[in-house]
Amino acid sequence: MTLGEILAVLRRRWYLMVPLTLLGLLTGGYLYTAVPVAYESQSSVSLLDSTAVAKLAPTFGNPISNAGGSLVVTADVLIRTLQSNDSARGLSGLGVTDRYTVGFAANASGPLVSLSVTGTDRAKVLKETTTLTQFAGDQLRALQAAAKVPPQYYVKAAPIVLPQTPVSKMKSRYQYVAAVVIVGTAAGFFLSFGMESWALARRRRRGLGPYPVRGTRRSRRGILRRPLDSTTVLTGYLALAFFIPSNLDLPALGGIGTPANVFALLGLLWYLASWFTGRIVPAPGTRGPRLAVCLLAAAVLMAYISDASRGSTHEEVLAADRGLIGLLVWVSLVVLTSAGIQDRERLDTLMRRMVVMGSVVALIGYYDFFTATNIADSIHIPGLQSSVAGVRTLDRGSFVRPRSTTAQSLEFAGMLALLVPFAVQQAFDPVRRHAGPVRRWGPVLLMGGALPLSVSRTSIIGAAIVILVMLPRWKPQRRWSAIGVLLVSVGAFKVVIPGLIGTITNLFSEFLSNSDSSTKARTVKYSAIMPYLREHPLFGRGFGTFTPDLYFFTDNQYMLTLAETGLFGLVALATLFLTGIHQGGSIRRLARTEADRELGQAFFASAMVVLVIGATFDALMFPMFAGMFFVTLGAGGSYLGFVRRDAARPAPAGEADAGRAPDTGPPALPDAQADRPQLVES
């Protein structure tokens, strides 16, 4: 459906669109003037061991007196105490009546506690922050005294960031305004197209055709009359996701409000408009990924209800709202790829574009690695802000870990590992034999070579999974050639980048010997997250609420899912990953040609990568990685639909050896739908 046709519908239904949009704008303007400006002051305290830890310190049988330990558990106990109702009443008696938050400091692996107070009176906020900081130290001493810890073994709370001068926080005001404007506009849009769908159905019952398209032939050549399809919409999403740093977002929407995500939501509106008016009918055999996302949506909604029923903080409520927006983005990507793409060639085009854009991101990663910088830090786009506090260039050993346009080096590694199988499949695709070796093998070399540059276990594990899944399915000649190329590549890395292979090897040797500090830090977090899980085991605390600024990084998608959406959410997440694996296996089993069988194996390998590396970092919380996963999940469902329809038709003689089987698209529509205007592919 073209943009001009969408505007024509909105013009016809102006009596719905205009009043609701104006109502949203007027309400937003009222909230902008009525909601007072909030001010926030912050301070930080660090827990320090006692002076007696030089001697062997007893534990006294409780975690409060864990002298000489990491003190992360002690900090967690203190945070929970300050968040309790008793502490809230005590602080209220001391004059702290504004909203305050306590949590682990962002990007801190040690016992660093962040305190903040938000209110509308600047002077009062500063005074309350000072009171809260002193109260934290008093509570820590009271906890240790109640546990009968000798004073010489007391853990101390030392302020390292004194209460800061309150700064204005306009984000809350913008969020209220944006929410009502979006709700009003979206309500007008849906009601307009709902009315249009009803009117079209009534015209068909009367034997009338669709509404005539107004305008001259010349006007239909403009951008408003240019046909759109899901591949075009998703290409725009991929360009925004890959080339705008994923830590930049709209201030009113927070971390979920990246330009790519906003574009995906607009794409969902375009799809719904086309569906309401009969321009798109989902192809049969493609429901698998949409059903899996429906299960995930049910888990997220149940977690949202759980969050609303437990008396969560204001920050957690906003985080849960952002989680719902993120869910809509994922739904949009799966729907556009699995139900919106009606032609096999257009789906092939989308996958090639995704691989090419991923190769550009990998190329930027080479620049970051060899120049010891990050090119994304120099990208500043008016109207966007960074949602990731303290984004900086990371290093490991003597090497800088690139992140390119991603939010973090782990996201960079995971995204490349997700796309490498498709780059390999496209390089071997007989349909692309006319392309030169640079066009076919360039993406494989760029993305495969960039994986070790991230100097992370995630990248090596992802590469190993791709190799172990794809190599056994190849013919012996190709398999041994690939093994030779891998051995030569390892030797080339040792020569060109001395010390890189040794650093990566040490990462795994330290992990196996349990001497790696990052592994120990993660183990501590796993034990620290269990109390939160026991509080809400079935539906969790709320999707998106377990944020690092309130709690801590989990570095494990499965543990994070357990905390936020409970056991139900973990089942939904596993179903999502297993759906991708099932689709890859089904494509390979049903395919008639070797090219399609290799495509199915690529989907299988990509889904296996996501399944495994989800245990190495909180994968779906990174917008670029999550977006690429859901695009490939929906694309797998769409390819499976094409393959199923091919398998249901009699195979022409010699087709199995002729390369890729032609696809005739979805089956003919029933007579009741034959008079509907159909989507014209661009």
Largest sheet: 5 strands, antiparallel
- Give me the number of helical elements: 20
Radius of gyration over alpha carbons?
Answer: 28 Å
Structural class: alpha+beta
Task: List the helices and strands in order.
Answer: HHEHHEEHEEHHEHHHHEEEHHHHHHHHH
Strand content: 5-15%
Kindly report the average pLDDT value.
Answer: 83
Low-pLDDT stretches are 59-69, 216-220, 667-682
Helix content: 55-70%
> Judging from the principal axes of the Cα atoms, what is the shape?
globular
How far is the first residue's CA from the last residue's CA? 11 Å
DSSP strand tally:
9
What does this protein look like?
- The protein is of the alpha+beta class and 682 residues long.
- It contains 20 helices and 9 strands.
- It has helices at residues 3-12, 14-34, 72-82, 85-93, 122-146, 171-205, 230-243, 259-276, 288-309, 314-338, 344-371, 409-428, 437-450, 457-470, 476-496, 500-512, 517-535, 557-590, 594-613, 623-648, and strands spanning 38-48, 99-104, 112-119, 156-161, 167-169, 248-249, 385-386, 394-396, 399-401.
- The termini are close together.
- Residues 59-69, 216-220 and 667-682 have low confidence and may be disordered.
- Residues 444-573 form the O-antigen ligase-related domain.
- Keywords: Ligase, Membrane, Transmembrane, Transmembrane helix.
- Residues 651-682 are annotated as: Disordered.
- It comes from Actinacidiphila acididurans.
